[in-house]
Amino acid sequence: MTVPRLFVAKVIEAGAELALDAPQAHYLLHVLRLGEGGEILAFDGGSGEWSAEIVKARKGSCCIRIGRKLREQIIAQDIHYAFAPLKQARLDYMVQKATEMGASLLQPVITAHTVVPRLNLERMRANAIEAAEQCGILSVPGVEAPVKLEALLKACQKGRIVVFCDERAAIAPPLEALGSLKGRKITALVGPEGGFSEAERELLLSKEFVCPVSLGPRIMRADTAAVSILALVNAVLGDWCRLPAQM
Ligand code: SAH
Fold first, then answer.
1. Position 161 pLDDT exceeds 80
2. Ligand 1 atom nearest to CA at 215
3. Mean pLDDT of the region 132-157
4. Which pLDDT score, from 0 to 100, does residue 115 have?
5. 247 has pLDDT over 70
6. pLDDT of 227 over the 80 cut
7. Which of the four, 30, 50, 174, 188, has the lowest number of CB atoms within 10 Å?
8. Tens of pLDDT along 51-107?
């Protein structure tokens, strides 16, 4: 069994004893059935990855004692993923996949056809943490509060390129479109199940910092488009073709 990894939202230092929250203690003690002396890996998103040992295990609570640093922190790549929120199960999946695909920030965007009345940001953050623990990364993507499309564009016009997944774009090689963006800060944008409105497409296509991309002749579900565009961005611009800088 691989050594379990735990994200701790506290500053990690060698020798520190950190009390875990109840869900984390439950996971280690009652799901993984570890006890005192059990070994785990701990990361806090800023100081790399450390060995740690379970201590002071009681029913439903325990601490971990930090050992030595095993991996130096790596600066996460700067790829933002902006998306119109989806219904719960697909949203859980999309948050998990965007995290595994190295998105450093998850930005919900409310568009004309977005059907989700309320977003549970805490649930999204928990899904991002779980995905980060599972896929071995050293930082957890930020999960921002929802913004309107106009606000997203206003924020991106200061130096970011919006890679606009446009299901109505003419079929064209996405690698060529992305290849022209080397060195740029990327925000990939995927619309809701109902697609972007005509007015939203016109607004997006009117901006010189928006790069429309076709994902081929088939209309994908938004969560499929998420994985597709993030794979392409990683392959051309991200850490599938270069290592992020070491801290
Ligand atoms: N219901 C809409 C499709 C929405 S699919 C319609 O029938 O037109 C959800 C989102 O996934 C889209 O807004 C777009 O951002 C992305 N997407 C899906 N298929 C795509 C494709 N072939 N090319 C580019 N983006 C696509």
1. yes
2. 23
3. 97
4. 87
5. no
6. yes
7. 30
8. 999 999 998 899 999 999 999 999 999 999 999 999 999 999 999 999 999 999 999
What gap in Å lies between CA 240 and CA 244, rounded to an integer? Answer: 10
CA of 33 to the centre of ligand 1 (A): 44
Q: Residue 246 above 70 pLDDT? A: no
Residues 6+ apart with CB under 8 A from 204: 149, 153, 162, 164, 166, 189, 196, 210, 212
CA 27 / ligand 1 centre spacing (Å): 38
Residue with CA closest to ligand 1 atom 24: 167
Atom of ligand 1 nearest to the CA of 189: 15
Please tell me the distance between residue 173's alpha carbon and the centre of ligand 1 in angstroms.
16
Q: Which residues line ligand 1 (CB under 6 A)?
A: 165-167, 190-191, 193-196, 214-216, 218-220, 222, 225
Domains of the chain by range and CATH?
5-71 (2.40.240.20), 79-242 (3.40.1280.10)
